[in-house]
Specification:
Structural class: alpha/beta
Shape: globular
Order of helices and strands: EEEHEHEHEHHHHEHEHH
Oligomer: single chain
Helix content: 40-55%
Number of helices: 10
Strand order of the largest sheet: 1-2-4-3-5-6-7-8
Distance between the termini: 26 Å
Mean pLDDT: 98
Largest sheet: 8 strands, mixed
CATH superfamily: Alpha/Beta hydrolase fold, catalytic domain
CATH architecture: 3-Layer(aba) Sandwich
Strand content: 15-25%
Amino acid sequence: MKNVLINGITVAYERLGEGTPLMLIHGFPLDHTIWNETAFLLKNDFDLLLPDLRGFGQSSATDAPYTIPDMADDLAGLLDRLGVEQIALAGHSMGGYVALAFAKKYPQRVSGIALVASQTIADTLERKEGRAKTAALVAKNGVRIVADSMTAKFSAHENTQNLIRDLINRQNKSGVTGALKAMAEREDLSSLLASFNFHVVLVHGDADDLISVDRAREAQALLPSARLIELPNIGHAPMMDAAEKIAEALTLL
């Protein structure tokens, strides 16, 4: 991986392929490697950037509070360093929140957005309280509590579950707690959809136990021009359980 210093932190990323610039943004609490199989399928058509968001993978963590827009600023800084002016964004789960925050702050730099197992709405009060409790437990006991509670919700496939569990357990607890707090405070960006004048693709498994497919249907209702692709019997890790279908969907950007 390559590393650059941006906004006082080290941002790690992979870059491969040739063609239209496309950034694949991972979800919580994972890193860029969830996209490996999808990236392999897309590398002949896209100039792919796969960053580790701050606090995850090989990007540095910080104990100071930060927001989802701060994470979007990190990605803008990465694009500046690489001389990429405009790019399509595909965000998985939390990565979708970051992609939306990026589109709000840097609309002229976005050529398309794909929300993969993600949503546009903010957390409910109950969800915010749940994230706060989880953050406190992770700070005290480490990330294993998240691996134990979330792994089975990503996928029904044992192979994928094993990969996800190992991936979560490798993450930095400061990154996990920081992201939990950032997600809890994110704003509802549903109204932003109407301003998008680029291709929007919504990809969601109908067996997603973490974010209901109804969230993608609601987003599509707000932006009828968006392409909604529902994946039967797929959970919260579609890029791992249905890489070919995700790759096909992303070619619509």
